[in-house]
Amino acid sequence: MADAIRVLLVDDHQVVRRGLRTFLEVQDDIEVVGEASDGAEGVERAEELRPDVILMDVKMPGVDGIDALRKLRELDHPARVLVVTSFTEQRTVVPALRAGAAGYVYKDIDPDALAAAIRSVHAGHVLLQHEVAGALLAQEDTGPAQGRAGTLTEREREVLGLIADGRSNREIARALVLSEKTVKTHVSNILMKLDLSDRTQAALWAVRHGMAG
After folding, report:
1. Pick from 187, 78, 196: nearest CA to 136
2. pLDDT tens digits, one per residue of 112-141
């Protein structure tokens, strides 16, 4: 499975990890490369195994999923993190996404939908279930990005709108007839100008400010 998506499972419940592994191992394009039982071990295994996607629980003993996300960001780890949890409260959802999660789904998600979610975040999409997006949009926007829309060029606005639609850099490049390298430059400029840390925050900012496509 040379081209398979390499996945790391991070959850403190062995039965959950076993269930996820059993399902994912029958997917032709997904390979489970390892497991971890808490956030600290998850970060260590991520550094060792270099997975493409990490399925991360939020509430775990010791180092939880949010702290693990922050550590992965500090390490500039390239893996995309998909939070898979049973917790739906805003006080859990919002910090996880602000810490760098590429998506947030619940443990009762349909197995086929979970496989699709893994493929989606691996492709560069931002993936939020409707309730999660609603929780974030309900937050008062007090961040430093307020009032900075005027600093964006017209092209950057177009790119931002497509990010809000969940498009990957490759899809944005095709839509705007640009190279992926140029799109990456535009995304970096957008994040810098709006003082945002990742495309998840950029997507939510765009929706909140009426700039979604």
Report:
1. 196
2. 989 999 998 998 887 765 555 555 555 545
Query: Distance between the two ends of the chain, CA-based, in angstroms?
Result: 36
Sequence-distant (≥ 6) Cβ neighbours of residue 5 within 8 angstroms: 29, 30, 31, 52, 53, 118, 119, 122
Please give the angle made by the CA atoms of 106, 112 and 116, to the nearest 5 degrees.
80
Write down the residue that tokens 């998600």 correspond to.
109
Q: Tokens standing for 210? A: 């009426």
At 40, list the tokens: 């600290």
Round to whole Å and give the CA distance between 207 and 145: 13
Predicted TM-score of the model (pTM): 0.71
Q: Which two tokens stand for residue 182?
A: 């140029």
Of 52, 74, 80, 55, the residue nearest 65 (C-alpha): 55
Packed helices 90-98 and 65-74: angle between N→C axes, nearest 10 degrees? 10
Decide if pLDDT at 28 tops 80.
yes
Distance CA(95)–CA(197), nearest Å, equals: 13
Contacts of 95 (CB under 8 A, 6+ apart): 66
In DSSP terms, 82 is beta-bridged to: 55, 103
Q: Which residue has the tokens 């944005």?
A: 172
